[in-house]
Structure formats: C-alpha cells, structure tokens
Amino acid sequence: MTQVWKDDGTRVPVTVLDLGPNTVTAVRTSDQDGYEAVQLGFGEIRAKLVAKPQLGQFGKAGVEPRRWLREVRGLDGEHTIGDVLTVEGFEVGNKVDVIGTSKGKGFAGTIKRHGFSRGPMSHGSQNKRKSGSIGQCKYPGRVMRGKRMAGRMGHERITVKNLEIIAVDLEHNRLLVKGAVPGHDGAQVLVRSAWIGGSAA
Predict the structure, then answer these.
(1) Whole-prediction pTM value?
(2) I need a labelling partner for 157 at 20 to 30 A (CA). Which of 129, 138, 163, 190 fits?
(3) Which of 94, 110, 201, 100 is nearest to 160 (CA)?
(4) 79 neighbors 24 (Cβ within 8 angstroms)
(5) Residues 99 and 164 in one domain
(6) 26 shares its domain with 71
(7) pLDDT category, 135, cuts 50, 70, 90?
(8) Which CB contacts under 8 angstroms, 24+ apart, belong to 106-112?
C-alpha cells in the first residue's frame, strides 16, 4: 500500500495491483466442458519447471508457459486463446471488486476472533478471556452448529466490494485502487468490475 494526493490536496490510501499481462491459455465451452469460462495465465516460468501434462497443454494452445492459472466465468465469447488482457479495460473513477485470500492469523480466542467482551479482572474471577457457556442444560443438550468459538482465524476467501480506481498505469500495467485488499504483499487477487444496481460499473 501507499498513498497519493488528489488535486484538491486530499490524501488517499491506495493499493497498487499488478495486473499482468494476463494471457488467455484456454477457453471452456458448454459443449465440450459443460460450462463457460476463460483460463488466464499470469507470471513467467521456465519450461523445465512445468509439469509435462501442462507443458503439452501450453504447446497445443500455442502460448508461453505461465506460472499461475485461474479460470474466470462471465467472459463468454469475448476472448480467444492467445489474447492478452491488460488494464486498458479499467477507467479512473470506476468501482471494482477485489477477491483474494485473507492473511492467516492462526488459532485465536473468541475475543480476537469474534470480538467477545472479557470477564471481570478482579475479585478472584476465573473468566477473564474465556468464552463462557456454549450449550444448553437439558434440551437439546448439544452445541449448536455454527456456534462462535475459538479456532483458526483468517485464510479465507474474501471479497472487498466497490473499491474506487484512483489511477491506471498503462505503461507498467498497474492499477491503483482506494483502500486495502485481502492478502499479504505479493498475493494473487482477482479484480472484476463492481455490480451496482444490477449493472457493471
């Protein structure tokens, strides 16, 4: 993350996203695969590091091997194998959704994970950071599914919606969006146009 200043002097926190270029390595069709999708490849990799089955698929498609592959639905009939997607499709002021995997925080208690209040800290209290009662006395006599308890926190698929595009860097193929996005530095994210009121922004 970094920060930029608008013309009126307002400071805006932004996240710099490196968007490619992304190469279309495969096209899924309903007739052949049962669904419509486009497979995108990102990142360079040496051919000797690619598994032979994947290397054969890249060779058959006539594209260079890519380090990461992701399938995206909703682009039916818009692209063919070999097309290169860049930031040219985005404009300053538009809203986008960013999908990624949040940072993993390990095992956490209920106060950190769910925002529970702590117990009293004096008069011999033994319930300073405990969760308290989790079940019933007699009926149904079990812990209900979905009960908020201590456990692993983070490392989940998160969608941050309606982030404003502050700047588009065509030369370096980068996008500057307002605010934070899920994941650590260098993590992979999916950027899509935000849907507001049933139409793409």
Answers:
(1) 0.81
(2) 129
(3) 100
(4) yes
(5) yes
(6) yes
(7) confident
(8) 106/152, 106/153, 106/154, 107/150, 107/151, 107/152, 107/153, 108/150, 108/151, 108/152, 108/153, 109/150, 110/148, 110/149, 110/150, 112/153
